[in-house]
Amino acid sequence: MEYNLDLHLHGLYSGAVSHEMKPRIIAEQALLKGLQGVGTGDILNPKWEKIFREETRLVRDEYFEYNNVRFILQTEVEDNSRVHHVVLFPSLAQVEEARKRLKGKTTSLESDGRPKLWLNTAEVADLFLELGCMIGPAHAFTPYTGYYSKYDSLEQGYKDNWRKLSFLELGLSADTDMADMIKELHNLSFLSNSDAHSPWPNKLGREFNTLKIEEISFEELRKAFHRMGGRKITRNIGLDPREGKYHKTRCRNCYTFYEPEEAEQFNWRCPLCGGVIKKGVDHRIKELADLPKGEHPEHRPRYIHIIPLSEIISLALKKKNPYSKEVQETWKKIIKETGTEIKALLDTDLETIKKINKRVAEYLEYFRKGEIQYIPGGAGMYGQLIPPGEKVEMKTYKSQTAQKTLMDF
Ligand SMILES: [Zn+2]
Ligand SMILES: [Zn+2]
Q: Which ligand is nearest to the CA of 257?
């Protein structure tokens, strides 16, 4: 069987998380998106576990279930180099054991969703591997907290444990074409997860993975990531990297785009406003690359780029806010017809959508043909969608200074 899984999200106790991020709402929204499995997020937090125990059913001490949606026991942790890791647990008993072993090695499991651990990168891997967990770097290439913002190779940070990683999470600003420029990653399975902070389907499942497995369980996931017994990841699905928050090199203050050479030349300080210039994921990957272009190993599944349906509707209806009433009502009408958002995006006959809204059908066609344009994201700002045919104006350092010189005359 094939299942769609989003294996990294956050619960109520992480920073900047929607108060509606609760298990039953997540499960309902997951079904509308077209996901059968999700990560619990933040499971080391005992208060978050308690909410799961109250709202859902615990099966075999291994996963929570509600409305046929399975929640794999999952958290994200931060190590003492500020690197983020995704961890999947085989059982709640091992979650409890991890809490014991982390006593005195962390701020507070109760107040944090994503705990900060006073352990280095290799020690974090040691601790969770000993418990039989699966671990891999989260959003591996992003500045601030991505693994490769601190290290130049897997071995450098993870030491001997690098061979025991189960996956690498690409993050929203990268895809397989980019990551496969780095040879040391060719043997590793890639995950595309949402890292969602709210349960609505423009966030939840904005990136997910399709797995060929017998059922959604820790052991089946392990086999798929390590490509055993015919289990495997059959596709990665996610945003075009240009929509990600850290894709391009930009100023954190005025969001001017910089070429890598310019940023180097100005010592990563924006000459226009004095702000810090943040290295984009595309630039970081080029620094690490062994190959000029991504060459995929045999096992690598295809990567399909999507745009959340409510964003396509917003663009078609010229609404800035994807949560506005008109967008949400159109979204609901479409899902009522198609069953899930993923079907609407990838499979549904456009004639069906046309009956609901002609313009949305037109934009859905643009999306499927890859004609929607982007102002790429960077320095914490998401990329922006631009309709086909419209001019894409990017505030680059060159364009900014050219204008200034003209004005000076
Ligand atoms: Zn993170
Ligand atoms: Zn600036």
A: 2
